[in-house]
Amino acid sequence: MFRFEIHGENLTITDAIRNYIEDKIGKLERYFNNVPNAIAHVKVKTYQNSATKIEVTIPLKNVTLRAEERHDDLYAGIDLINNKLERQVRKYKTRVNRKSRDKGDQEVFAEIVEDNKADALDDTSQENDFEIIRSKQFSLKPMDSEEAVLQMDLLGHDFFIFTDRETDGTSIVYKRKDGKYGLIETTEQ
């Protein structure tokens, strides 16, 4: 069963908003054979121009579902988020189930009979979308994050993988949509 952590920024989350989010996002549970005990992280932010931004992240064992939407109407934005998440589930259902079957595990996603045949056709046509056409190998050089950003910019890439000189772990710097930079640090589990 999904549990919800709903946070509002510049907005008080009322019972009506909470119930609407839980009802809409909770419908994703029908796609699972055994509904995972997962936490759905929902962040709702409003801006001065009354626009809202909704972010939903649901980390699962085999895949992380994530969607983000900006809309003038909060409830319409939640509906759009739900549609995006459903598309993600349908897209990854076949792949994740196949991997689970190959490992001998129970299939993660349930088979849902859709009324809309276009969606079913879409799913099968997207099944082979991820074909790796090129592979590269390179050595990770020890450097700090500032040096990695400079190297990324010199190469003209959107991301750069490096060994963090201080932590000796693998890290990634990337260019964000707003033109600023982000850092992803890896941890061992």
Supply the key terms.
globular; RHF-like; HPF_long/plastid; alpha/beta; SHC Adaptor Protein; Double Stranded RNA Binding Domain; 189 residues; 4-stranded mixed sheet; 33% helix; translation regulation; ribosomal small subunit binding; 2 domains
Produce the secondary structure layout.
Elements: E1 2-9, H1 15-26, E2 38-46, E3 52-59, E4 64-71, H2 74-103, H3 117-126, E5 142-143, H4 145-155, E6 159-164, E7 170-175, E8 181-185
Parallel strand pairs: 1-2, 5-6
Antiparallel strand pairs: 2-3, 3-4, 6-7, 7-8
Would you give an account of this structure?
This protein is of the alpha/beta class and 189 residues long. The chain has four helices and eight strands; from the N terminus they run E-H-E-E-E-H-H-E-H-E-E-E. The protein folds into two domains: 2-126, Ribosome hibernation promotion factor-like (Double Stranded RNA Binding Domain, 2-Layer Sandwich), CATH 3.30.160; 142-185, 2-Layer Sandwich (SHC Adaptor Protein), CATH 3.30.505. It has helices at 15-26, 74-103, 117-126, 145-155; strands at 2-9, 38-46, 52-59, 64-71, 142-143, 159-164, 170-175, 181-185. The strands form two sheets. A four-stranded mixed sheet has the order 1-2-3-4, covered by helices on one side. A four-stranded mixed sheet has the order 5-6-7-8, with helices on one face. The longest helix is centred in the middle third of the chain and has 30 residues, at 74-103.
